[in-house]
Design brief:
mainly alpha
């Protein structure tokens, strides 16, 4: 004969304790859900707010050139710009290859073919690149390593070609770098040729088939100066 097991009755005090434990578990569960929702919102905002949340650093390959860059920069009065030179190198090649400054097509390369990766001597590439950057900084009117508005102009000139870019700016009354002016120059220099939407350079380098229309931003993410220097 089956008999039902009787559930022992809880005292009022025991019921209160049980209720407290249940409430605590519910609060803990709701708290975890709340934190999870906040985390998802934060990640979404970080991804789509338009602000860079990553911290970009010069890699070991570029840092390995620091002493050589410092020595070469001193010869051209560029000692204050060593970090900027390394930031350019990082963007151009990540310190890889025989032309780490990608200066083969620049005016200061007189020993090797003026074509992509024509230079086969990293030291010569660094020398040419530093001279090219100095020329662009001088043309921009840059006053020092914290003068970011003029550094932006110089960097875009380094990528586009200094003389032609500054001639375009002067002709059009442009005195500061903007994405719009960079793209307008690239449109002209490319003869109006657009990159295909599936071109891997379309989004990162801009819609026109000439250079990198966002080059200053790409270099400056590797260039870290103190807030004191920036405001001095």
């Amino acid at each position: 004969m089956n008999t039902k097991r009787k559930t022992p009755k809880l005292t009022k005090k025991q019921r209160q304790r049980l209720r407290v434990r249940q409430v605590r578990r519910q609060k803990l569960f709701l708290g975890l859900i709340f934190l999870l929702v906040l985390g998802c919102i934060f990640l979404r905002l970080s991804r789509f707010s338009g602000k860079q949340t990553n911290t970009y650093q010069i890699n070991a390959s570029c840092e390995a050139y620091r002493d050589e860059v410092t020595t070469e920069a001193t010869q051209y009065g560029m000692s204050d710009y060593v970090d900027l030179i390394l930031a350019v190198m990082m963007q151009e090649s990540s310190g890889q290859g025989t032309d780490p400054m990608q200066s083969s097509e620049g005016a200061y390369n007189t020993q090797y073919p003026q074509q992509p990766n024509g230079i086969t001597d990293p030291s010569y590439s660094i020398s040419c690149g530093i001279q090219e950057l100095k020329y662009a900084l001088d043309k921009s009117g840059c006053t020092g390593p914290a003068d970011l508005p003029h550094i932006r102009l110089a960097l875009q000139a380094y990528n586009f070609g200094t003389d032609s870019y500054f001639s375009y700016l002067a002709k059009n009354g442009e005195t500061s770098w903007t994405t719009e002016s960079a793209q307008a120059f690239a449109q002209m220099a490319s003869g109006g040729k657009q990159r295909d939407e599936d071109d891997p350079l379309h989004d990162p380098a801009g819609p026109w088939d000439y250079g990198d229309q966002y080059y200053p931003d790409h270099v400056l993410r590797y260039y870290h100066i103190s807030s004191e220097s920036e405001t001095s």
